[in-house]
Amino acid sequence: MFNSSEQLILGLTIIIYFIFLLSMSVYIQRKIKTYDDYNMASRTVTLWPLILTFVSTGVGGATLLGYMENGYTLGMGQQWIHITMMAAVIVLAFFLLKRIRLLGEKHNMVTIGDYTALRYGESARIPTVISFLFAYCAMTGMQFVAIASILNLTIGLNMTAGIIIGCILLTIKTYLGGLKAVVWQDVVQGTMLTIGIIVLFFVVIFYSGNWSEIKANASSQNQNDMLNFLNITPNEILIYLLTLAFYQFIRQDVWQRIWAAKDLKTARNGYGLSMIIAVALGAMTVFIGVYAKFGLNLDIAETPLVYYNVIQNVFPFPLVLVMIIILLAAVISSADSFFIAGSSSIANDIIKPNVKSDNQNKMLLYSKLSVLIVAVISLVLALMIPGLVDLMVTGTAMSVSGLLAPVIFGLFWKKPTKLAGNIAMWSGLGSAVIWQILGHPFGLHPILIGLPLSIIMLLLVTFFGKKDYATA
Fold first, then answer.
1. What string of H, E and C letters represents the secondary structure of 40-91?
2. What is the pTM of this model?
3. In angstroms, rounded to a whole number, what is the distance separating the alpha carbons of residues 395 and 135?
4. Would you call 154 helix, strand, or coil by DSSP?
């Protein structure tokens, strides 16, 4: 894909970029004095950094590589990912965000485990942590693999070596700077990837010709359905809605940023504006994939490489180099957000309740050690499990199955009891895991089993079980 001289230039540029990010973490580390500094960016994040960190977390390597490949292979129907996502964003922004922010502000919350413990008792932390670690360690491991893939394709580095290098570099930068470093690095990376995707989108349209030419090319290949936004089954739309979209309501990285904002207005405006940008960027990547097939007329055998083929087709090498760094920025900006979300769960919901310490220095140390624990688990997953994307999707399904009903019902309805919340979490999580292990009997996705069961158990125990209402 790249000749030896291009590989050398790419390798040097990637090294310089990593040194830049590590230097930022070292600099920011000097300003981190407390547990809140590390896990919540001191709760003082202003509007533009908040917008860009939301964008950077939402638009990762899976967006650039996965959505573009989906557009190329499956067509415009994949825009339903973004339609369902936008619906979820609207619900969160207008109906959930204020309640989440005020609760977090009042109780100085760090994780969703703090909320479930307040609402359903300390025992609720356990299923909450299990749900999140399953998803976030898989997502972090997937980013190690994504970095390794970039290094493999650009400089020919062995995949195993690339995974280990990606793990080491991401662990060091996250260990040093915590969420504060993540936010300020996202200012740089979010700006880069936003501009990069928009430029690529318009350049691809320019080279592809008008829509009538696109339609003629699709027709000549007998693939007119690829241009149809309804080229997707209702079942696929439902799964996107229940997993990727509904997961937005219980994403720990989203809740942490809502609490990290300096005030409610900043949280609301930052989230709303950033999600409009993120969803638009995701939609553009699907368009680019479709246009690559019927506009640029690229014949790509290895479809995971659509992004690389597109940028090499429309840009000279110096701009290809820039677009590779933008891809790397997209991967890293998502990875460190998943990293800190997972490590916060360990520090805040496992270690802190058991050591019962309010010492800021000690809890800061535990937070950094938690980063190392997440690194080890994620590295093992990355090295041992080839289907990390499937594991990530499964992980989000488990989280939604176990947590969505207790969290959403609990935010707005006082009747669900502590026992009802705990049973709903365990029944939803457990049934979804079992259904996954059984291999999706009757062709039903685990989310279609776990989420309804969680809701049913929450309601049954609330109405017919012992009354032990929480105070939240």
1. HHHHCECHHHHHHHHHHHHCCHHHHHHHHHHHHHHCHHHHHHHHHHHHHHHH
2. 0.90
3. 4
4. helix
